[in-house]
Design a protein that fits this description.
Structural class: alpha+beta
Number of strands: 7
Order of helices and strands: EHEEHEHEHEEH
Shape: globular
CATH superfamily: Gcn5-related N-acetyltransferase (GNAT)
CATH architecture: 3-Layer(aba) Sandwich
Number of domains: 1
Radius of gyration: 16 Å
Distance between the termini: 16 Å
Strand order of the largest sheet: 1-2-3-4-5-7-6
Number of helices: 5
CATH topology: Aminopeptidase
Largest sheet: 7 strands, mixed
Helix content: 25-40%
């Protein structure tokens, strides 16, 4: 797996040149990401080339998930007083078409999981990372890394315990 340095999205990054092939993701990075950052709705991390063209990006934010949606083996270990449990939402992850096939998607996911684990251990509670795959290709990508589909929601789930095990090998 190639190593890439992610940095927070900033004004120098050339958002308008990003093209992953999914109009919703392209439009998000071009027009919405900076607004979401300003409004504290999400954090956006990018990998860019020497000319500040964005190769790929992902977003993270806090979220809650109904205890009814989480896997039984995790639910039974959680206090019954919590109707909603804290999770980290990996909201968007995309790679520019020009940089596909270089392991960047995997590197972005690993970086997002590392940041999520670090925050869970040191900053705020989070029992899992969840994603809401944009299409079946995205779902297939996340399944490859151990995410499981949550019933009746379309979301996918990777427990923070599993994330921790990934990095403690």
């Amino acid at each position: 797996m190639a190593k890439y340095l992610t940095v927070p999205l900033n004004k120098k990054h050339k958002k308008s040149e990003f093209t992953c092939g999914n109009e919703r993701l392209d439009n998000y990075i071009r027009t919405q990401a900076r607004q979401d950052i300003k409004k504290k709705l999400s954090a956006c991390f990018v990998v860019a080339n020497e000319e500040d063209k964005i190769k790929g990006f992902y977003t993270l934010s806090n979220a809650g998930i109904s205890r009814d949606l989480i896997p039984e083996e995790i639910k039974k270990k959680m206090p019954k007083a919590y109707d909603s449990l804290p999770v980290t939402l990996l909201g968007r992850l995309a790679v520019d078409k020009q940089y596909r096939g270089q392991g960047l998607g995997q590197s972005l996911l690993v970086d997002a999981l590392k940041k999520s684990l670090e925050a869970s251990n040191n900053i705020m509670g989070s029992i899992a990372v969840i994603v809401d795959p944009i299409d079946e290709d995205a779902a297939k990508f996340y399944r490859k890394y151990g995410f499981i589909l949550l019933p009746d929601s379309g979301k996918m789930f990777l427990s923070m315990k599993t994330v921790e095990q990934l990095f403690n090998k």
